[in-house]
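Re: [ENG-882] Designed sequences occasionally contain unexpected residues at chain ends

Forwarding the minimal case from QA. Structure tokens:
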């Protein structure tokens, strides 16, 4: 049986880094949020620390919709990993629900994972060189402002919660597989 892993956390919490370790461990296809957003941001001339218009976000959502549709054609044993930062706004639950619907259509297991990390560590991580590889937020003040104004969507019941400041990416990946019943 395949799995759909959904890693959610604030910018800098290690979503992509943990997902890469999880992909290496499980063979799951990594479909992180920058895979869908970055080509659109690049084409529209939007920088990682700039404002994104509603029209540009709609284009990102169209790419995400196409990816979800493509997953319906995947073999049932293929697992997938999605990453997101979801704010504490009620409308953000629709992102989780879309993935729950996809899981139901495919008949695979849903594994929600909420990543946490203390704000001082998130701010420190904004300056890491690997954040420049993709259109990632790099301004420590922006991450502080974002979390102060938008917060984080609380973890749903049954979600695994991991503090990435205390675990290596590999340790996190092993905890996720254990939680999913795949061993470690």
């Amino acid at each position: 049986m395949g799995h759909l892993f959904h890693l959610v956390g604030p910018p800098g919490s290690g979503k992509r880094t943990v997902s890469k370790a999880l992909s290496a461990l499980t063979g799951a296809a990594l479909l992180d949020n920058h895979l869908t957003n970055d080509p659109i941001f690049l084409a529209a001339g939007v920088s990682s620390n700039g404002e994104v218009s509603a029209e540009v976000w709609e284009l990102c959502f169209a790419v995400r919709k196409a990816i979800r549709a493509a997953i319906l054609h995947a073999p049932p044993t293929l697992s997938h990993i999605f990453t997101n930062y979801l704010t504490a706004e009620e409308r953000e639950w629709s992102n989780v629900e879309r993935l729950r619907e996809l899981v139901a259509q495919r008949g695979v297991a849903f594994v929600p994972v909420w990543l946490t990390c203390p704000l001082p560590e998130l701010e420190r991580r904004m300056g890491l060189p690997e954040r420049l590889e993709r259109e990632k937020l790099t301004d420590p003040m922006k991450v502080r402002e974002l979390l102060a104004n938008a917060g984080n969507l609380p973890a749903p019941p049954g979600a695994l919660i991991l503090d990435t400041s205390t675990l290596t990416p590999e340790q996190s990946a092993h905890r996720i597989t254990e939680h999913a019943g795949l061993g470690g």
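QA comment: On inspection the terminal residues look reasonable. The mean pLDDT is 92. Proposing we downgrade this to a documentation issue.
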